[in-house]
Amino acid sequence: MSKKFLTDVIVQSTEMPAVAANRLATDIIEAIKTEITGTGRFTLPDFGSFVVRETPKRTAMNPRTGEKVPVKAGATVRFKASPSLKEAALAGMKKAKRKAAKA
Question: Which residue stretches of the chain have pLDDT < 70?
Fold first, then answer.
């Protein structure tokens, strides 16, 4: 999903001008970022949750040279889908497979 996709959905559902919808999409994305950086978590019911996870300091291997390289500790954002989203995705996959089998 892109910001343009989000903007287009807002325009279609609210008949709002594209400039205002783009500003609204930007504000929504910024609000989500602020919540994640502030609390370390953001949850949308019936969609899923974004959680900040720390990554430990480790040693990796350069695949080109085989040399061991130190990797700093850091953080990453992980997404966990809600059960209803998982169920909807599975139903969509099954429907697509049935449609492909008919063709």
Answer: none
